[in-house]
Write a structure and sequence with these properties.
With about 325 residues, this protein is α/β, with parallel strands linked by helices. The chain has a single domain, classed as Alpha-Beta Barrel (TIM Barrel). It is built from 11 helices and 9 strands. The chain starts with 6 loop residues before the first strand and ends with a helix.
């Protein structure tokens, strides 16, 4: 059994609650990042999603600058930047700027999915949307961060020669294998793709080749967590995310709904199965129940770090959930 604390981090989608604004969500993100720093969380990441009324972090690097300016030491990162949506030079310059302003605090997590629907992806990319050129774009980006060679004409300024750690993110096995071959840290999206978890971790470790950035595999797992002082309250808080995902699979994505005391009248049996299966990578309950779930998760996966998503409407309850999680982690 695992008996020592594991590194904990936070993934924030900057959820816009029903009746609130994107500005509210961004201010809530900063308040949470400040709590995370005080509680000892390792990093605070925000994610790129587009054309979604319930997510305010589309301009991810801009949000990161806001969060870094409002904190002092916690690592700020992207979970992730969807690289095929951007020119590698733009990302190198943006993250080079962030690293120049907040040295030693910036993480660049990269994904190859569009982070949106296909029509929006087409509007962003103005070309292919299948992500098949991701490895080539990644190679180009890494070269832009490297120390320039004599006579090199194209440079990222700022960016070239800076140490911005690159992570690969994935919800299947493609990025797991690529991260292993390149010797990069890997973050798996277990918060919404639990089915591929074990195969992705296995392939990452099997394919791992040491690199200048990393000498041995380093895997971070995304999970959802809803903790409260009693189990009933924790399950109540979790219903906001369940409703949001139910709306998504019905083709009606929107803002984060208020929690409800029962979901039974809101979904059909097959919808309940789909939602609960997709969100099965979750810790729900009071500290005792969540602690037992945490132990089982770490024993089964052997990951080095957890990055936790807690889409809870009530911000005080959300912050309390993260505090409870860190407390039980320290007591392990």
């Amino acid at each position: 059994m695992t008996t020592s604390a594991i590194k904990l981090s936070i993934l924030d989608l900057c959820s816009v609650s029903e009746g609130a604004t994107p500005a509210d969500a961004l201010h809530n993100a900063l308040a949470l990042a400040q709590v995370a720093e005080a509680e000892g969380y390792n990093r605070f990441w925000v994610a790129e999603h587009h054309n979604m009324t319930g997510i305010a972090s589309a301009a991810t690097s801009v949000v990161m600058g806001y969060l870094a300016a409002g904190t002092r030491a916690i690592r700020i990162g992207s979970g992730g930047i969807m690289l095929p949506n951007h020119a590698p030079l733009q990302i190198a310059e943006q993250f080079g700027t962030l690293e120049s302003l907040y040295p030693g605090r910036i993480d660049l997590g990269l994904g190859r999915a569009p982070g949106t629907d296909q029509s929006t992806a087409q509007a962003l990319r103005r070309g292919r949307t299948d992500g098949e050129d991701f490895p080539l774009m990644l190679e180009e980006l890494r070269k832009l961060f490297a120390t320039p060679e004599p006579g090199q004409r194209l440079r990222a300024v700022p960016g070239a020669g800076l140490n911005v750690p690159i992570w690969l993110l994935g919800s299947s096995t493609f990025s797991a294998q690529l991260a292993g071959r390149l010797g990069l840290p890997f973050a798996f999206a277990g918060q919404f793709s639990p089915d591929y978890l074990f195969s992705a971790l296995r392939l990452y470790r099997e394919h791992f080749t040491p690199s200048e950035q990393l000498s041995e595999p380093y895997a971070m797992l995304g999970i959802n967590a809803y903790l409260a002082d009693d189990r009933e309250q924790a399950h109540y808080l979790a219903t906001s995310h369940q409703q949001a995902f139910l709306n998504l699979i019905r083709g009606r994505p929107g803002q984060l709904p208020a929690p409800v005391h029962s979901m039974e009248n809101l979904w059909q049996a097959h919808e309940r199965h789909q939602v609960m299966s997709t969100l099965s990578g979750s810790l729900i309950g009071d500290p005792q129940a969540a602690g037992e779930q945490l132990e089982q998760l770490l024993e089964r996966t052997g990951v080095n770090e957890l990055i936790v998503n807690s889409p809870i409407v009530d911000q005080s309850a959300r912050q309390h959930s993260y505090r409870l999680l860190m407390q039980l982690n320290r007591q392990r």
